[in-house]
């Protein structure tokens, strides 16, 4: 399983907006400068995140993006599913797998356990968890004086 740049950038965009958002919308131009992601690519990802219900856009000169909901309610798994689709380590671990060897496959328990572990991490890690962890590591400070995600 490899997460594409779209999924990785979506997570960075969401974290940047979570950290820098507030009363005013966050412009993609500002996020682009902080994150080193082209505005054009961010707009494509932003469209996916908006359709997925994670961002709300505001048009106009003072426009930008807001998070829909609190960072503590948005999981990494939610973001990756909207950008990457459903993800499974192997075809046999997909829901409703058509593999007829699962019951006798010697490697299936390994793939199933690995898949559950990955899903357990991404589905139980929120944006707020990442913000809190990075604040402890002093990678970001919420006061806006020193951060990079």
Task: Give an overview in words.
The protein has 149 residues and is mainly alpha-helical. Helices cover 48% and strands 5% of the residues. The protein has helices spanning 5-20, 28-35, 39-51, 76-84, 108-123, 127-136; strands at 55-58, 64-67. Strand 1 (55-58) and strand 2 form a beta hairpin. Helix 1 crosses helix 6 and helix 4 (76-84) packs across helix 5. It is elongated.
Quick overview:
It is built from six helices and two strands. By secondary structure, it is mainly alpha-helical.
Question: Which percent range fits the helix content?
Answer: 40-55%
* Poorly predicted sequence stretches spanning 5 or more consecutive residues: none
Compute the number of helices.
6
What is the rounded Rg?
Answer: 18 Å
Class from helix and strand fractions: mainly alpha
Helices and strands, with pairings:
Blueprint: H1 5-20, H2 28-35, H3 39-51, E1 55-58, E2 64-67, H4 76-84, H5 108-123, H6 127-136
Antiparallel strand pairs: 1-2
Helix pairs in contact: 1-3, 1-4, 1-6, 4-5
């Amino acid at each position: 399983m490899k997460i594409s740049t779209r999924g990785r950038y979506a997570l960075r965009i969401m974290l940047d907006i979570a950290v820098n958002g507030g009363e005013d919308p966050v412009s993609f131009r500002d996020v682009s400068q902080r994150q080193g992601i082209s505005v054009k690519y961010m707009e494509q990802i932003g469209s996916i995140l908006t359709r997925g219900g994670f961002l709300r856009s505001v048009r106009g000169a003072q426009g930008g993006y807001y998070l829909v909901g609190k960072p503590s309610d948005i999981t990494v798994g939610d973001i990756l599913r909207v950008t990457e689709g459903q993800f499974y380590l192997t075809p046999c671990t997909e829901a409703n797998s058509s593999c007829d060897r699962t019951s006798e496959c010697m490697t299936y328990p390994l793939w199933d356990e690995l898949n559950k572990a990955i899903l357990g991490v991404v589905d139980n890690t929120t944006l707020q968890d990442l913000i809190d962890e990075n604040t402890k590591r002093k990678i970001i400070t919420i006061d806006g004086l020193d951060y990079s995600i």
